[in-house]
Write a structure and sequence with these properties.
The complex is a heterodimer of chains A (166) and B (126).
Chain A lengths: L8 H15 L1 E2 L2 E2 L3 E5 L2 H6 L7 E13 L5 E14 L7 H21 L8 E2 L4 E2 L2 E3 L3 E3 L6 E14 L6
Parallel strand pairs in A: 3-4
Antiparallel strand pairs in A: 1-2, 4-5, 5-10, 6-7, 8-10, 9-10
Helix pairs in contact in A: 1-3
Chain B lengths: L5 E9 L2 E2 L3 E15 L9 E15 L2 H7 L3 E10 L6 E10 L3 E3 L7 E8 L4 E2 L1
Antiparallel strand pairs in B: 1-2, 1-5, 3-4, 4-8, 5-6, 6-8, 6-9, 7-8
């Protein structure tokens, strides 16, 4: 039986992003009251949220490209789902949007300030990915009132030394 | 990993002048060649590189920065970032002269400038 080792970098990246979001604080106050990890888009969408604001970190997939000498450049695709309860009376749509954008930007700053140790940019002339790349934001301030929702795609890059370095 | 990959030229300077908004730097080192063959040779019996020449181009976004360094001479230096952040490299090219530029500032598009340079030294990578 061949002995192997497992680095499990894609999990380490998910865990590091979760830690960065959990640790995010503005003037000593946590930005998110809870940060959970899921894989199911339906589960994340149907969650009955209790505390506010929260972040749900959805693992989407891991993709790899082959580089010279067996090196693999990869990305971990994630989706950050941010939800906040904004139920004060008389709040305008723009006020709700301002708050959810503030949370979205706080999440980005938190991850950019503490990027996963296993993450890196990578390229080999044929393809290139940044260490962290944020996708287009989807925001819904009205369907689930008083909750506002934000979906923020993210790709975290990494590189593996070889085919048995996963 | 047996090799390194670099990206993002940083801290580009010519002497004491900063070159800002740099997108890419091409460094070319070429050598003159001599070739010779005797009457009965079926292949060249002499094929050598002799003196080297360093030249290149810097492509940047900032036409004002380009204008400030064109015509200047000094040591061109910049950093190549290691993509994994482990070991960035510094490149230094002494006696480098930047002459002229091609600047494009166009409608609904970012400005770009290409600065050509020649140098009396080979690049030193540390």
């Amino acid at each position: 039986m061949a002995a192997i080792t497992v680095g499990n970098q894609d999990w380490s990246i998910v865990e590091a992003v979760q830690t960065a979001l959990s640790s995010a604080a503005i003037q000593g106050a946590s930005v998110f009251q809870a940060v959970t990890v899921t894989t199911s888009d339906r589960q994340a969408g149907q969650c009955q949220f209790h505390t506010s604001p929260i972040a749900v970190l959805r693992y989407v997939t891991t993709k790899e490209d082959h580089s010279p000498e067996g090196v693999r450049g990869g990305i971990v695709a994630l989706e950050l789902i941010l939800a906040a309860q904004i139920d004060a009376t008389g709040l305008s749509e723009s006020t709700r949007l301002r708050e959810v954008l503030r949370l979205k930007n706080a999440a980005i700053n938190a991850v950019e300030q503490a990027p996963p140790d296993d993450s890196s940019a990578w390229g080999d002339g044929d393809h290139y990915h940044a260490r962290i790349r944020w996708g287009p934001t989807e925001i819904d301030t009205s369907v689930r009132q008083p909750w506002v929702m934000c979906r923020l795609p993210a790709e975290i890059g990494f590189a593996l030394d070889g085919p048995t370095s996963h | 990993m047996a090799f390194n990959v670099y990206h993002n030229p940083q801290n580009v300077t010519l002497g004491s002048l900063s070159i800002t908004g740099v997108r890419s730097i091409v460094v070319s080192v070429r050598y003159k060649e001599i070739h010779a063959a005797g009457d009965n040779d079926t292949h060249e019996s002499v094929a050598r590189f002799t003196t080297g020449r360093t030249s290149g181009t810097i492509t940047l976004l900032d036409p004002v920065s380009a204008d400030s360094v064109q015509g200047q001479t000094g040591t061109l230096s910049f950093t190549w970032q290691d993509v994994k952040g482990v070991s960035d490299k510094s490149v230094s090219i002494g006696d480098c002269c930047v002459g002229g530029y091609d600047a494009t500032v166009s409608r609904d598009a970012a400005s770009t400038v290409t600065l050509p340079f020649v140098a009396e030294s080979a690049p030193v990578i540390t």
